[in-house]
Amino acid sequence: MILAEVTYIPIGSGTSASKYINAALEEFKKSGINFYPNSMGTVLEVKTIDEIFDVVKRGEKAILSMGIKRVETYIKIDDRIDVENSAERKLKAIKY
Does domain 2-93 have CATH number 1.10.340.30? Predict the structure, then answer.
């Protein structure tokens, strides 16, 4: 499993981005991947690098379709192959 964290920053939308982020989260839900929203971004669990970019693109398109003219998108990728990687495994590793 590959973990990725994505953060979208809709530019020109005012101080609250929640309705735009919710649109991206709906796209993640439709894709069938596991995802974990948090206050600063969303962690994705996917099988391939291509799947990361596909779902991130879908989320960005959802935000742009709401009239936003600019979105900054930040992605971090954790591709670990020596263990079965998951958000749950990482949280257990730090005993949280």
Answer: no
